[in-house]
Task: structure prediction
Amino acid sequence: MASYEAVIGLEVHAQLKTASKLFCSCPVGFGAQPNEHICEVCAGFPGALPRLNEKAVELAVRAGIALNCTVNGYSLFSRKNYFYPDLPDGFQTSQFEPPICEHGHLEVTVNGETTRVGITRIHLENDAGKCVHGQGVTLVDLNRAGTPLIEIVSEPDIRSAEEAAEYMRQVHAILVAIGTTDGNMEEGGLRCDANVSLREKGAEAFGTRTETKNLNSFRNVQRAIEYEIERQKSCLEDGEPILQETRLFDAVKQVTQAMRSKEDAHDYRYFPNPDLPPVIVPEKIIAAWRADMPELPAPRIARFIKQYGLNDDEARTLVAEKGAADYFESAVAKGGQPRRVAALMQSDFLRECAVAGIAPAEAAMAPDKLAELAALVDSGAISGRMAHEIFPELFSGGASPEALARERGLAQVSDAGELDRLVDEALTENPDEVAGYKSGKTKLLAFFVGQVMRKSKGKANPALVNNLLIKKLAE
Result:
């Protein structure tokens, strides 16, 4: 890439966290039987009239506020004309000019360098249905048709695949934190289209862009863009034309593949939807929603570092998922030492949540139990290794950590007399190693710690053993 610069813009589609669809009262949900949640409106019956979901408007405005956008008190719905088998109306109801939010930005930091990514617009639109292919036929499921979406369109300010993935992570964290979307990417709650082009370094004109559709994980965003950059670079070096087209990413083969030629805005023949009046949101309502915004991820990360003494990595890991950050603060409020709670969450709790496929709030292990476990480790009653051993059972059953440790006989040996006896035995039985340590081979300290731990069957307090050995070997 010495001669070329990547120019990347992302279109993020977020499913809004509403109970019903954008223009009808059909429920929004994942996993229902095909065509279970449809009516005349979302199935596109002639003469059926749409009615706008007020909650969807609120969630779109909140997203705009969180992403530093100007909120337009007046916006319009238009018909975006194109034909898909799973688009029952024969057009998509979307916003063109003016959208509900525009002119925002988000700062993205990668490898210590911060880029300000402009946000062109956020607009409301309804989702299409879903084509189901198999056994020589294609069936159409309209359960998803009419689901409320916002599309967040960035400026072409992103210059690397890593930067694009980090932008997606931040958008995801922000939208989940404010309750705009559930953010479940596997179920289509958040997905992304990536527009990628290359130009010679120093050039102002953009190259021919491609759009890679429906990327549904941060990893796929990064890998699809990496592949597309390399593909376009090879085309330019070989003198082959780059076609303006829509592509799909094959996550198994890790390649993008041509799908169809890419349309421009004029190809959609936008015009105002005659069945929907303008969307008018009074300034006093926008101000009330602005005042009611929850804490956003960036200031929460800064607060975790300042208030709880976490490092940047610990704070970012916890705040990446709002439920994890809330759980952490609940455990600390129950008496857990912040750094210990954060360590237990990173090493065990979040892993168990991922394995079980549940959110932190759904875990049987309540925050007060994690606080109790943290206190046991900090007091020396049990070791970190012992906490790790019993964690799966604590997580799944919600038992008392102290009771389980006592039942398992895991209480850590911290009695000074007992430890002194074990240390003396280890030193007496290994005179050559003692001589080696005293001659300067200080790495043998780990050997002696291991001997004491073996004698105690892993129950000796490692910190006390370490200090006692250093004292005795110095005599």
Q: What stands out?
A: Residues 218-237 form the longest helix (20 residues).
